[in-house]
Amino acid sequence: MFESHFGLRAPPFQLSPDPNFYFGSRGHAQALSYLKFGVHQGEGFIVVTGEIGAGKTTIVRTLLESLDPQQVVAAQVVNTQLNETDLLAAICGAYGIPAQNSSKAQLLSTLEAFFTAVAAGGRRALLVVDEAQNLGKREVEELRMLSNFQLGNQALLQSFLIGQPELRDMLMSPSMEQLRQRVIASCHLGPLTLTETRAYIDHRLRFVGWSGDTIFDDAAVAEIFGRTRGIPRRVNLLCTRLLLAAYLESKTQVAAADVRMVAEQLEGESGMRAIAPAAEERNSRDEGGVASTSSG
């Protein structure tokens, strides 16, 4: 609607994850490196957590698009509010394996046969479980059991667990000790810094053809950062509404006052908090407090 007004080819701030818009902030680049490290290792679990809208799914899709299907057979499960049998059936479905009306034992046998055939063909199987914080402990145990499948000394399946911070809490429980011993790396994806928020906005605008005068001045970006706390999906939502408001008022630039007004409208509509972090917190984040990572 507003794209031609700003000389853009397409909407720059879509909410749906799109690897074409991948932005390599410090935290996002680090998380993607952890996933690539996991693919290289070919075994065990990689865990990536982050707040809602932090960009986890975009990172996963960026990784999946970079994989050579002649080397890695990858599948992704998104619906994780399932019991253990339904989860196994969902994994079969993700790999394109017929599994209707199968028992749990049949599903396990079917998956082991499939993974064995993949390995015998010189490829590796990768399973990405998104929204993994919704899994129950019994379902997580099923994933661990799948990691036991081997052909000689070769693990037949590697799994990436992607989820919100609650996933880390669940994995730290005493009953998860056996799975924790199979986690070869874990990473928590933090928000963008103020500097990264500026670069993120410019990156998405340039990707769809922006090359003219600045649309969001520095004061506007600082206000966007404060209102969204550097969460990419929130930045996308707010910037889309800001461009729409500017278009409706025949403006070509967005000021801090515009951000405050539109953010307050959004807060009333959707409950998105319009509370700026304290200056000290903003400065701390801008010094690089983006993501905390650990490996084991």
Briefly, what is this?
This protein is an alpha/beta fold and 296 residues long. The chain has two domains: 26-189, P-loop containing nucleotide triphosphate hydrolases (Rossmann fold, 3-Layer(aba) Sandwich), CATH 3.40.50.300; 193-289, Helicase, Ruva Protein, domain 3. The chain is 47% helix and 14% strand.
Describe this protein's structure.
With 296 residues, the chain is of the alpha/beta class. The protein folds into two domains: 26-189, P-loop containing nucleotide triphosphate hydrolases (Rossmann fold), CATH 3.40.50; 193-289, Helicase, Ruva Protein, domain 3 (Orthogonal Bundle). Helices cover 47% and strands 14% of the residues. Strands 2-3-6-1-7-8 form a six-stranded mixed beta sheet, with helices on both faces. It has a two-stranded antiparallel sheet with strand order 4-5. Helix 3 crosses helix 5. The longest helix has 17 residues, at 104-120. The N and C termini lie far apart (49 Å). Mean pLDDT is 88; it is low at 274-296.
CATH overall fold name of the largest domain = Rossmann fold
Number of discrete helical segments:
12
- The CATH superfamily of the largest domain is known as P-loop containing nucleotide triphosphate hydrolases
Number of domain modules = 2
Gyration radius over CA: 22 Å
What sort of overall outline do the alpha carbons produce when their principal axes are compared? elongated
Mean pLDDT: 88
CATH class descriptor name of the largest domain: Alpha Beta
Largest sheet: 6 strands, mixed
